Each structure stands twice: as structure tokens, then as C-alpha cells.
């Protein structure tokens, strides 16, 4: 084993068994790369973790000479095996990692792909101010290296009125479109499951001061569900309003809105607990009067009068 990489927050030891074949303008690498020991500590993404824009043009001295050099194409199939001493900590997760991946670089300039899975061991995850035990943590690769599938179950156990409650979070789906679900055992509503997860009690036993904490946590989980629609609105329209509405608990909704011209306002309301989405269009007709039409689980049409002070 030898130390292949050492930074203040990352250390890797590797044991390579690789072969390289040079054929014309191609270099094909095959074999196995064992990682018996590694430690990764990340509190935030590095400042230089960015991709240059497609519009970026770099002018270098001697660029004309470089363009005349032959271009090497790197191909290969390398199996990466994690050993028993690989640890990751960051973003609330503290875990040992295990598993193996087959990394393949196909010809024709295609991006590398990966097959296999990585799994957590003895993992703890901090969320909503609580520490959760990761009972199952899998990163499943079957395609692009940067788009694994997640399968995570993290829980905490609470004693309530003589009964043991298991409340937790399930994460699933591709890494760029993660689905989040809060659950509890014995089975109960998602609102009660989240309340047990955050406040150690059901919604019916939450004091008024705990509603804000519960709503903020619901927003953190709910944003993962509404992210596609909010991204679409932000990209296509831009947003003039993003807010929480409701008195807390099951009535809490995330609202995103955009003004179109002087008289038309479009809003999208998403229930963080009932997961019901509603589009609202409000049109000002003058003299303090507006018409608001709603389309969702139910249709609505209202005449609204506003008194300006």
C-alpha cells in the first residue's frame, strides 16, 4: 500500500494491480485498484468544485503547437475495491464505507460508467437537530458515475406513553432527483411521523411553540418533493414570492409566486403534509377588486376585495 493522496480533509491509500496497453493513439487500462484505507472529511464543497462554462475560451501560449500534437484516448475497465478502513464524515453523515465498483471508459469520447454499489457501515446521520441511525445506506451504480441511485433508511427510536415508536426518513431515486419520505412504525400519518422524528411526540401533543420547528423541518423535507416544479417556475418565470403559509402542523404549505405584468399574479401552493399542489391565478380588475381562480384537488373561483390603506 502507498499513500496516493493527502490533503487536510482527504487521505487515500491504494494498492494497485493495473495493466496499461498502448496501441496507436489509445491507452487501455485494466485491472484492480484496492483502497484499503481512506478518510474523507467534508463540511462543504471545495470552492474550486465548479465546471467551466461552455462559453469559456482559454488562450495559451503555444496553443497552436499543442493542437498539432496527437490526441490520446484513454479507455479501460478497472475494478475499485474499498477495504475495511474507509471512512467518510460530512454533511451530517459519519460512516464507514464498503463495496466495489467496475469503472469503464468506453471509446468514442463517451463518459465513464460504473457498475456496482457502495454501502454504509455503522453510520450515523444528523438531521433536524437529531441523530439518526442509518439502518440501510446504499449507493447503486448502473450507468453514469455522477448519477447513482440512493437507497437510504435512517431512523431514531422514541418511547411514547409506554410504546416504542420508530420514526425515520427514506431516501430513494437518482442522486439528482432524490425522493424523500418520512415514516413511522407502527404506521401513522406522515404528519405524526415527522412530529415524532423532530419533537418526540404526535402532532396532537405539540405545543404552540413547537409548530414553527415542525414546519421548518417539513419545509426541508418538502422542498425535495416540490423541487422539480419550483425549478421549472424559477427557470421559466423567475419567482417574486417563496414563503410558508398556514398556522403550523398539517396546514403548512410552501407557496411560490410570480407577478406577470401589473395585474396578473400566479402562485403555486404545495402542502408539506398532504402533498397536494394547487395553482392559483389572481387578476386585478380594478377599484380594489380581484378574481382568483384555483386548480388542484378542487376547483375554485373567488371575487376578492382589497382595501388599500
Give an overview of the whole structure.
The protein is mainly beta and 309 residues long. The chain folds into two domains: 2-41 and 72-206, no CATH class; 241-305. It is 14% helix and 56% strand. The protein contains three helices and 16 strands. The chain has helices at residues 63-68, 190-199, 211-236; strands at residues 2-7, 10-23, 26-42, 73-90, 93-105, 113-127, 130-144, 149-160, 163-174, 179-185, 241-245, 253-260, 264-271, 277-286, 289-295, 299-305. Strands 1-2-3-4-5-6-7-8-9-10 form a ten-stranded mixed β-sheet. Strand 9 (163-174) and strand 10 form a beta hairpin. The radius of gyration is 26 Å and the shape is flat. It starts with a strand and ends with a strand.
- Rounded mean pLDDT score: 78
Number of helices: 3
N to C succession of SSEs: EEEHEEEEEEEHHEEEEEE
What structural category arises from helix and sheet content?
Answer: mainly beta
Shape: flat
Lateral arrangement of strands in the main beta sheet: 1-2-3-4-5-6-7-8-9-10
Largest sheet: 10 strands, mixed
Amino- and carboxy-terminal Cα gap: 75 Å
Q: What is the share of helical residues?
A: 10-25%
Number of domains: 2
- Portion in beta strands: over 45%
Topology:
Layout: E1 2-7, E2 10-23, E3 26-42, H1 63-68, E4 73-90, E5 93-105, E6 113-127, E7 130-144, E8 149-160, E9 163-174, E10 179-185, H2 190-199, H3 211-236, E11 241-245, E12 253-260, E13 264-271, E14 277-286, E15 289-295, E16 299-305
Parallel strand pairs: 3-4
Antiparallel strand pairs: 1-2, 2-3, 4-5, 5-6, 6-7, 7-8, 8-9, 9-10, 11-12, 12-13, 13-14, 14-15, 15-16
Amino acid at each position: 500500500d502507498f499513500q496516493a493522496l493527502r490533503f487536510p480533509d482527504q487521505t487515500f491509500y491504494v494498492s494497485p494491480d493495473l495493466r496499461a496497453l498502448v496501441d496507436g493513439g489509445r491507452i487501455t487500462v485494466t485491472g484492480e485498484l484496492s483502497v484499503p484505507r481512506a478518510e474523507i472529511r467534508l463540511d462543504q464543497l471545495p470552492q474550486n468544485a465548479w465546471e467551466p462554462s461552455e462559453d469559456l475560451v482559454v488562450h495559451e501560449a503555444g496553443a497552436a503547437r499543442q493542437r498539432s500534437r496527437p490526441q490520446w484516448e484513454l479507455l479501460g475497465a478497472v475494478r475499485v475495491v474499498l477495504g475495511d478502513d474507509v471512512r467518510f464524515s460530512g454533511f451530517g453523515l459519519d460512516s464507514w464505507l464498503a463495496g466495489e465498483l467496475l469503472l469503464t471508459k468506453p471509446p468514442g469520447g463517451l463518459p465513464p460508467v460504473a457498475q456496482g454499489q457502495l454501502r454504509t457501515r455503522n453510520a450515523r446521520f444528523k438531521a433536524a437537530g437529531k441523530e439518526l441511525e442509518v439502518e440501510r445506506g446504499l449507493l447503486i451504480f448502473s450507468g453514469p458515475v455522477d448519477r447513482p441511485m440512493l437507497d437510504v433508511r435512517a431512523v431514531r427510536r422514541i418511547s411514547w406513553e409506554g410504546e416504542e415508536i420508530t420514526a425515520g426518513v427514506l431516501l430513494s431515486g437518482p442522486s439528482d432527483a432524490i425522493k424523500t419520505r418520512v415514516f413511522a412504525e407502527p404506521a401513522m400519518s406522515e404528519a405524526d411521523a415527522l412530529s415524532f422524528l423532530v419533537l418526540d411526540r404526535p402532532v396532537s401533543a405539540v405545543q404552540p411553540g413547537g409548530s414553527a420547528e415542525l414546519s421548518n423541518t417539513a419545509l426541508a423535507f418538502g422542498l425535495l418533493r416540490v423541487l422539480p416544479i419550483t425549478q421549472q417556475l424559477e427557470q421559466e418565470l423567475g419567482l417574486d414570492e417563496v414563503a410558508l403559509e398556514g398556522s403550523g402542523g398539517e396546514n403548512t404549505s410552501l407557496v411560490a409566486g410570480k407577478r406577470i405584468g401589473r395585474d396578473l399574479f400566479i402562485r403555486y401552493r404545495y402542502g408539506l403534509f398532504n402533498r397536494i399542489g394547487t395553482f392559483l391565478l389572481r387578476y386585478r380588475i380594478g377599484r380594489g377588486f380581484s378574481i382568483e381562480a384555483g386548480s388542484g384537488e378542487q376547483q375554485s373561483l373567488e371575487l376578492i376585495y382589497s382595501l388599500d390603506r
